[in-house]
Amino acid sequence: MASFDSIVLFGDSITEGAFAAGGFGFLLADAYRRKLDVLNRGMGGYTTDWALPVFEQVIPKKDVQPKIRLVVIWFGANDAVVPGFTHHVPLERFKTNLGTMLSMLRDPSSDWYHTPEQTKILLVTPPPIEEKAVAHWLATAFEPPFSMDRKFANTKMYADAVRAVGAERGVPVIDMWSAIWDAAGQTTEGLGQFLPDGLHLNAAGYKYAYDLIVETIATNWPELKHENVKEVFTLWENIDKENPRPSLQANRLP
Amino acid sequence: MASFDSIVLFGDSITEGAFAAGGFGFLLADAYRRKLDVLNRGMGGYTTDWALPVFEQVIPKKDVQPKIRLVVIWFGANDAVVPGFTHHVPLERFKTNLGTMLSMLRDPSSDWYHTPEQTKILLVTPPPIEEKAVAHWLATAFEPPFSMDRKFANTKMYADAVRAVGAERGVPVIDMWSAIWDAAGQTTEGLGQFLPDGLHLNAAGYKYAYDLIVETIATNWPELKHENVKEVFTLWENIDKENPRPSLQANRLP
Prior knowledge:
alpha/beta; Rossmann fold; 5-stranded parallel beta sheet; homodimer; about 250 residues
């Protein structure tokens, strides 16, 4: 608990890895230090189907302190496996599941209703995959080996779907699919520098997530830029040294 | 909020910097991902005097979900400035202040009482300082420049005091003063590789904090080792694919 409002990062392994060396999670946590907690709610291998019951538990029900100021929702990498494999979630249901998360937050009759003023939402598209590298990883990193269950074109379809849901529902989208594909020169060969196993991002790849999140916050909600959020506990220079206690009361966003 | 129990890192700038690249905060956060949040409650320039009113606000009052499983208390670097300078806290009051934090947590009549079973405590000694580098940093990094206000021998006295409080109160101490001094070959020249500005740790220095914390947890409270804490939301392999919802209920430490 410990009384800071938060940014929640909700997603699959690409989010779970956010606090590993080079992940974007600690870049955000450091940017918002003294101000907001950045909470890692990434769960490796999860799809939106399995994420929904978890969402009900990680999002508090209304009017609870401390408050979530931003939810970053990043799924699709596993939903996009081809039909017949365990993780597959049909495209329409994937879109519906994302829509359900948005409605849980935005429908005033929802137990999890959070006002747009208090809680911002970002959707993120799954990055492109490099099929050869993924096939190698699945075949060698697991005992027993996994069969190849992903296609570049499928992941792209799910990325498009995230963008469509964002557009329909008025939620900004961090387009990691396009950012990484463009940075890769739109070539399969170029992907390896951002996706060492063909699926998960390294520091160079995560840097795009960090930069896009920061930029999108700045454009849409400048009050949430880390420079504009006040420290919860004031800078030491501002403590009234003669009578410290009043200046040591927590500052909160309205 | 978002419903994970937590590890709270409470201290001055050496803790505030814990999530910068190379900090120990994200090493801990990654080790405990899926299991516990690691919350940065470091405040640059703070002494134990100013930390006490903050402690009252960051530690919840009893029986509140989610629970704090470990509090890491790391002060002294600023308390140890020489008398006459703003940050100075006399040695006896420094010890009393630390004792007050411990009593807030451990005295059954305290509003902030947390049982030893539920909430572990670690004290950490301030690292040694390299006086020449600190003098240079204070004179050049600030406008107007700060006067030199620290002594190697004073910081050592406050490190000794932290160890004494830990011994008196039965709280394990992470001895960063000794760890860094020994790693520096017990020479002033050797300190620079861990303390680039003479006061704050770099990644090489923070690694000692991470390793000592992990080791101390393993020795004293093996149930809190990250390997032994269950994921709050189960590994995807353990989801009952036919009937997912029951397997997606949060797992909590007792």
